[in-house]
C-alpha cells in the first residue's frame, strides 16, 4: 500500500497523471501564442516571436512526450507483472513530482534544477523496470 492505495492502482494513476503533465507546459505556450497573435496559415512560424519562457515551455512539452513513453511502458510493465513492492509505487509518484518540477525549472530557466529533475525521473523509470 502506498498512500492508502494498492501499488498496482498507484502505478495506473501515475501513468494518467504523467499523461496530463505532458500538456502542462503547453498551457504556457498556448497563453503566449494568444498574446503574440496566432497565425492560422503558419502556426509553427510563431515560435520565433514567442518570449524566451514560452520557447522553453515548448521544449519542456516536447521532452515530456519523450520521457512519458518510457515511463508509461515501465509502469505498465510493473503493473502487468503484478508488482506489489512499495518502492515501485514511490518511484511512480516521484516520477510525477520530478516531471512537474522539471517543467517548472525549464520554464523558469533553472538549468541545474531541470537537469536534476530529469535525472530523478529517469532513475524512477529505470527502477520500475528493475523492480
Biggest beta sheet attributes: none
Count of separate DSSP helical elements: 4
Shape: elongated
In which range does the helix fraction lie? over 70%
Distance between the amino and carboxyl termini = 16 Å
CATH topology: Four Helix Bundle (Hemerythrin (Met), subunit A)
Structural class estimated from helices and strands = mainly alpha
Low-pLDDT segments: none
Work out the number of β strands: 0
Query: Can you tell me the CATH architecture?
Result: Up-down Bundle
Taken in chain order, the helices and strands follow as HHHH
Number of domains: 1
User: What fraction strand?
Assistant: under 5%
CATH homologous superfamily caption: Membrane associated eicosanoid/glutathione metabolism-like domain
Average pLDDT figure: 92
CATH class: Mainly Alpha
Work out the radius of gyration: 17 Å
Question: How do the strands and helices of this protein lay out in sequence?
Answer:
Layout: H1 7-36, H2 52-81, H3 86-107, H4 111-130
Helix pairs in contact: 1-2, 1-3, 2-3, 2-4, 3-4
Task: Summarize the entry for a quick read.
The chain is mainly α and 131 residues long. It has helices at residues 7-36, 52-81, 86-107, 111-130.
Task: Give an overview of the whole structure.
- The protein has 131 residues and is mainly α.
- 78% of the residues lie in helices and 0% in strands.
- The chain has one domain (7-130): Membrane associated eicosanoid/glutathione metabolism-like domain (Four Helix Bundle (Hemerythrin (Met), subunit A)), CATH 1.20.120.550.
- It contains four helices and no strands.
- Helix 1 packs antiparallel against helix 2, helix 1 runs parallel beside helix 3 (86-107) and helix 2 (52-81) runs antiparallel to helix 3 (86-107).
- The chain is elongated.
